[in-house]
Amino acid sequence: MKWAVEIKKTGLGHRNLIDLLNGLGFELVDGVDFEAMYSPYFDDFETAAEVWAEAKKIRAAFTGPASIDPEFVLGSVIDYSTAERKRHMFLEPEPIYLKATFGSATLTLSPPSNLSPEELKEWEDKRAEQEYKSKLEAQRERLEPVFLEPRASKVLELLSAKNQTGETLYKIYEIMEGHPSNRKEFQHQFQISENEFTRFCDAVHNPVVSGDLARHAYEDKPKSDCPMTINEATIFVQVLAKKWLSSIRNKSRKTS
Q1: CA angle 139, 141, 142 (to 5 degrees)
Q2: How far apart are CA 211 and CA 216, in angstroms?
Q3: Burial of residue 121 (number of CB atoms within 10 Å: 0-12, 13-18, 19+)
Q4: Which three-class secondary structure state does DSSP give residue 16?
Q5: Where are the domains of the chain?
Q6: Which of 120, 122, 199, 248 lies most in the core, judged by the most C-beta atoms within 10 Å?
Q7: Which tens digit of pLDDT belongs to each residue from 184-227?
Q8: pTM above 0.70, yes or no
Q9: SS3 of 3, please?
């Protein structure tokens, strides 16, 4: 081990931090003043500045639109190649991030009746573990794509908007697609039919369908027989984004 980067502050529990870092290919090790994150690929860098630049990408993944840990603060870069650990400190203004809120449905379950104290404790422990794993997976669904693919950060930022318009919905679609030249392959990958895409385009582009929420000002005859409503277009994009973000994680697993 040659380099590691200290984590000066975090709002996450210790286990949660370890699990999330492991998902990105990092582990926690002893630093100088704080615990530090380490990955073998850090050892390929020659200077502390190069390591710091990579560490900022991890910080951005935690504090940015994925909204995992807005309290995440980096400490020093630690050089382990010398007999005594050497600290490299980098001072810079901390960026300000808008915190996105991601809600999820929760289901409260009551324990079965007539359990003994020991059985109740076992039930509560098992339930707490299930809830933790569910929360962890929801975090990873956002954190890992943002770390692996820069476009994912913008997609999550736009998805967090309270009120979607044709402009924002189509922009999210375009970001995921990458370029119109990718359209055929993209739609094949995510099983988007030509009719479904036309219905979506009617909703986001045409004021005849979506009024002032449409991207365009001029009215035209819809190109489909049954255009999506703006609400249906929103759901279409949300479902597509979930699949797209998942595909980024899956691609990384196949190549690792």
Answers
A1: 70
A2: 9
A3: exposed
A4: helix
A5: 1-148, 150-255
A6: 199
A7: 999 999 999 999 999 999 999 999 999 999 999 999 999 999 99
A8: yes
A9: strand
